[in-house]
Amino acid sequence: xxxxxxxxxxxxxxxxxxSDRMLSAHFLxxxxxxxxxxxxVLGRSCVGLSSGDALxxxxxxxxxxxxxxxxxxxxxxxxxxxxxxxxxALRKKRIEEQVFLPRxxxxxxxxxxxxxxxxxxxVAMNLDHMVQTMDFGVELIIAGVDGNGAHIFxxxxxxxxxxxxxxxxxxxxxxxxxxxxxxxxxxxHWSLGVNETVFNVYRAKRQSEAAPGxxxxxxxxxxxxxxxxxxxxxxxxxxxxxxxxxxxxxEIQARDLVAALNFDEADNGSQAAA
Length: 274
What we know:
Helix content is 45%, strand content 23%. By secondary structure, the chain is an alpha+beta fold. The chain folds into two domains: 228 residues, 4-Layer Sandwich (Glutamine Phosphoribosylpyrophosphate, subunit 1, domain 1), CATH 3.60.20; 39 residues. The strands form three sheets. It has a five-stranded antiparallel β-sheet with strand order 10-1-2-11-12, covered by helices on one side. Strands 5-6-7-8-9 form a five-stranded antiparallel β-sheet. The longest helix is centred in the last third of the chain and has 27 residues. It is globular.
């Protein structure tokens, strides 16, 4: 339950990322705005965003620090691959803890050492089904800029990474549909400048707040080869002012058009005829 958005800009030389601050955890039956940033810095010019269970995210993103220590300037794709592998490993660990260890076996014993064939077929199929359908409950966006330009990767169950470079933007969380529809309607494209993209991403985040579980709090980052900088509160206020000025004329025109419709007169005429 959240919203995270990333979009490329300035001919793929920059990334604009935004998220709310809503956190949820699998052991809690509530959601809350957290003071800490949800956009994690994974490298000089790379960030990670997450939706779903907040607890595994720190461990997943820590995998990026390992490759950053090994390579001076890792590619965004290399960071995404490292986190994807960590995602698969952590998901496997959770499956083992929840499905197999309570039964006195390990996942490797079940699959690799052939225990799957020693169980009754119905039991083996049920255990395998639990493995295949286990929902880790975490989605990630890895976004950054390297020597080859701006890149956006999405990572989802069961540990699959997909590139969104061609589309130029991606969103995750309960507000995903609202955000993506906003970006589509605003004709967001990687060729647009940073100013326009920041505004489009801001509007997408605001429109996503109509979805359940999306918090009102907002943080934004602009990522280039020079690093990652936060959009200030003053800049957010100016973006909100621009959004209101854009919407107000449209609302006024819409109200005038609705007022000019003749449905009320048609209804009165029908009632009179009756």
